[in-house]
Write a structure and sequence with these properties.
- With 233 residues, the protein is α+β, with helices and mostly antiparallel strands.
- The protein folds into two domains: 67 residues, no CATH class; 156 residues, Alpha-Beta Plaits, CATH 3.30.70.
- The chain has a three-stranded antiparallel sheet.
- Strand 2 and strand 3 form a beta hairpin.
- The chain is elongated, with a radius of gyration of 27 Å.
- The protein starts with 11 loop residues before the first helix and ends with a helix.
- 16% of the residues are buried.
- Bound molecules: iron/sulfur cluster (2 copies).
- One iron/sulfur cluster binds next to helix 4.
- The site of one iron/sulfur cluster has 14 residues, from helix 4.
Length: 233
């Protein structure tokens, strides 16, 4: 409900001010002591908190955290395959697309596979990153995502914001039926693992879905369609 302005003239008690000042001090003190000594509802959804316990809607970060929405572009992760290796084939497309030039890659070859490449070094400077998501969109292998739901953790040390392949490689494994290492087989993957990966592989969607755009909940096509409909109204 919009705020209603009360324009009535002040009565005598209000014109004396002191009772109103005492009333204000009383309200502030009551809430101060309530918040100081009584238990509080720690529900991260601050608007849904039980106001009988406390009026305090402040989030006690970092002990309390609000989950970010699904489309949130969070901290990067290198998507692993089921055998624990990165899906990344060190093609440099993400590094080329990155406007902040904060991705550094060194490509290497698997010793037992003459075809596949992998990133011997894959480093992102999260301090320089402008969180644009271009790297995710540029990747042809769905090998880098920003779906971790976290932001880069704060640090006192500049070097702690340099995330290398060991820190970046995490999260659920992903396999697609079109993955070349699954289609032709790879000497670097044990046969039983290869079968497991083939069984888990899913088709890569022909039409971009939220998953194909790699930031669940965020779809460029859906947003473009929405804008088009708004413009035609
Ligand atoms: S989100 Fe943007 S700035 Fe950050 S690494 Fe990816 S492309 Fe570069
Ligand atoms: S993350 Fe994707 S775009 Fe970047 S080097 Fe690896 S495969 Fe290429």
């Amino acid at each position: 409900m919009p705020y209603q302005l009360d324009n009535r003239p002040l009565d005598l008690r209000e014109r004396m001010y002191f009772p109103e000042i005492l009333k204000g001090i009383g309200i502030v003190s009551r809430n101060f002591f309530k918040n100081l000594f009584f238990s509080r509802d720690a529900n991260p959804d601050v608007l849904a908190r039980d106001r009988r316990l406390s009026q305090n809607a402040t989030l006690q970060y970092p002990e309390e955290k609000v989950p970010y929405p699904p489309g949130y572009r969070g901290l990067h992760r290198l998507v692993p395959r089921e055998d624990g290796r990165p899906r990344c084939v060190a093609c440099y497309m993400c590094a080329t697309a990155c406007p902040a030039q904060c991705i550094y890659i060194e490509a290497g070859e698997y010793p037992d596979d003459p075809v596949e490449k992998y990133p011997v070094k894959f480093v992102i400077d999260e301090m320089r990153c402008i969180v644009c998501g271009f790297c995710v969109e540029a990747c042809p292998k769905d090998a880098i995502r920003m779906d971790s739901g976290e932001h880069a953790p704060p640090s006192y040390d500049r070097a702690a914001q340099i995330w290398d392949e060991k820190r970046l490689l995490r999260g659920p494994a992903v396999s697609y039926q079109y993955d070349p290492w699954l289609r032709r087989g790879s000497p670097s993957i044990p046969p039983e693992k290869l079968e497991e990966m083939r069984a888990r592989a899913k088709p890569f969607p022909a039409v971009a879905t939220d998953e194909a755009s790699q930031t669940p909940g965020f779809s460029v096509r859906a947003l473009a369609q929405e804008a088009k409909e708004r413009a035609s109204r």
